[in-house]
């Protein structure tokens, strides 16, 4: 009988230290240590993130192995996030993965974090969910990325469009900050939006060519809008919180859906896979459900823990690369900017 392949995966590209263990494509454990420290500063502080990764990485890896009920000697290969991300954060995971692979004398597999978000759909667990069929369109929406990718096969991907300034999660968080919400404010906008009128305050849509996105103009128009309103009524935000949030969310969701529809029309692809932390947003989920009905799309949404930054998505890519014997050399280095 064929011996199973055990992959230990490590992710440390931003502010989550994560480790996961796979037996072939089956996920055995998935551990994430999130860093609370950044909340006090209203955003991720790179230097604090790398220090926290150093504190978390060993316990997180130990816990992932223990939960999977395997010994480190059983691991067949180590997969790690090489980039893109914060250099100091990436260095912690990269050097840890390199030393462990060297110590255990097993292969090392570098993984592109963005590819991880796209291939998270192929993680197998106790839930028997249908996986996307190739070719599909992947929409990755998080605090760090906003991309539409045409996925022809596991390792043949083409970026059709991406943000030219802020990521969509940043657009949510920066708007939330203008409203005085704590970081990260995206989920709070979502919460208040649910009882507001999305058409109450129309914000202008950015004019960006092709399938690229821009969100920085929206932030500026919200800033001016709030400033003007507050000069007339200093309680404007408090009195209109729900309507403001619903209007902001409506604008952001429309920007995303317009481009996704354009991509679907241009490519003729109706199989859609969503990833990234912003896929928790109710507005985007409702819009996608509507598109399934109205446009005949088939939308795939992975479990939320595979959408936010995690090591399971790095592990599945590691497993697929292992099958191709696509291993990395010990001299490999982290890469803060790393395109698909
Ligand atoms: O993928 P993620 O956990 O981390 C990275 O950015 O890599 O995404 C976090 C982002 C934050 O910007 C957060 O505000 C946003 O996702 N977010 C949401 C919601 N849940 C998380 N934005 C809008 N609505 C939500 N329900
Ligand atoms: Zn990410």
Which features does this protein show?
single chain; alpha/beta; five-stranded mixed β-sheet; 340 residues; binds 5'-O-[(R)-(carboxyoxy)(hydroxy)phosphoryl]adenosine; 10 helices; Nucleotidyltransferase, domain 5; binds zinc ion; 2 domains
CATH topology of the largest domain: Nucleotidyltransferase, domain 5
Measured as a percent range, the helix fraction is 40-55%
How many helical stretches? Answer: 10
Indicate the proportion of strand residues: 15-25%
Structure description:
This protein is an alpha/beta fold and about 350 residues long. The chain folds into two domains: about 5-125 and about 310-325, ATPase, nucleotide binding domain (Nucleotidyltransferase, domain 5, 2-Layer Sandwich); about 135-300, Nucleotidyltransferase, domain 5 (2-Layer Sandwich). It has helices spanning about 45-70, 85-105, 115-120, 170-180, 185-195, 215-230, 235-265, 280-295, 305, 310-325, and strands spanning about 5-10, 15-25, 25-35, 75-85, 110, 135-140, 145-155, 155-160, 270-275, 300. The strands form two sheets. The protein has a five-stranded mixed sheet with strand order 3-2-1-4-5, with helices on both faces. Helix 4 packs parallel to helix 6 (about 215-230), helix 4 packs antiparallel against helix 7 (about 235-265) and helix 6 packs antiparallel against helix 7 (about 235-265). It binds 5'-O-[(R)-(carboxyoxy)(hydroxy)phosphoryl]adenosine (KG4) and zinc ion. The site of 5'-O-[(R)-(carboxyoxy)(hydroxy)phosphoryl]adenosine has 18 residues, from helix 4 and helix 5.
